UniProtKB/TrEMBL annotation:
UniProt cross-references to InterPro entries, sorted A to Z: AB_hydrolase, AB_hydrolase_fold, Hydrolase_4
Protein known as: Alpha/beta hydrolase
Sequence ranges assigned to domain Serine aminopeptidase S33 in this UniProt record: 25-252
Keyword Hydrolase applies: yes
Pfam families with a match to the protein in the record: Hydrolase_4
Length: 266
């Protein structure tokens, strides 16, 4: 499918694709993902009467990248995509779904006034809310590796030392067909760590989110991620929390889509 482009406030072109016809829900991917990662969920949502939009976050895929980076720029990117896909025939309604660190973008966008009616977050990684704040030394090491152009080492460091995957999982990632694509966007891992900060709950941002929110987690994710999701829901002014059957940090799109659709269209 041919990509369309929205222009963010700083002039950066943001590539997006749209699936289906109906009120739009913009899907925001997590770390090390491009828009293609959201297509399975987008297709499921399109089959349920929504118009699902996937996009490349800045610095990834077909989107541009303008320095210097700041979390506010990603909120502006989301707002630009929302503005490009909202339609009068849908009553101006638009929604957003954020996967992992993509949920941080959704929160920033909603807090800063993006025209969203409802939002869904899947396991926003505020691990500090569960007693595991982000280690600044590990973040600094990531930036050092990226700065030296050691992309493979940067991805491995992120997976092992920041995400906390076991050695066999990191080795599996290095041997996977997706490894070269992950290396291409290794520099955006610094964007994700900047979004997350120290991984504690951003109280001012959460308090500024006035729209209804659903925070989801998988029952097979780590207790830390589940607790972070629950704490996020409790801190938002108008939110509910649900745990769904799934695997680590994921729920099958065919099971996730009906839950997302039912909440967004309630």
């Amino acid at each position: 499918m041919t990509a369309h482009f929205a222009t963010s406030s700083d002039g950066t072109g943001i590539a997006f694709e749209r699936f289906g016809d109906g009120p739009p829900v913009v899907l925001v991917g997590g770390a090390l993902s491009v828009r293609g990662a959201g297509v399975p969920l987008a297709e499921e949502l399109a089959g349920l009467g929504l118009s699902a939009v996937v996009y490349d976050r800045r610095g990834r895929g077909d989107s541009g990248d303008t320095e210097p980076y700041a979390p506010a720029r990603e909120a502006e990117d989301l707002a630009a995509v929302v503005a490009a896909v909202r339609r009068e025939e849908d009553g101006g309604q638009a929604y957003a779904f954020g996967m992992s660190s993509g949920g941080l973008v959704v929160l920033e966008g909603a807090a800063r006034g993006a025209s969203l009616s409802r939002i869904v977050l899947f396991e926003p990684p505020f691990t500090g809310a569960a007693g595991q704040p982000q280690d600044p030394a590990r973040v600094a090491r990531l930036a050092e590796l990226v700065g030296r152009g050691e992309r493979g080492e940067a991805v491995s460091h992120f997976l092992a030392e920041i995400i906390g995957l076991p050695p066999q999982a990191v080795e599996g990632a290095r041997r996977s067909p997706a490894w070269e694509d992950m290396k291409k966007i290794a520099h955006t891992l610094c964007y994700d760590t900047a979004l997350l900060g120290d991984a504690t709950l951003p109280d001012e941002t959460l308090a500024a989110v006035r729209v209804p929110a659903l925070v989801l987690s998988s029952d097979e994710s780590t207790p830390v991620l589940q607790e972070a999701s629950r704490a996020t829901a409790e801190a938002l002014p108008h939110a509910e929390y649900r745990s769904l059957p799934g695997a680590f940090h994921q729920v099958p799109p065919e099971d996730l889509a009906p839950v997302v659709r039912d909440f967004l269209t309630a």
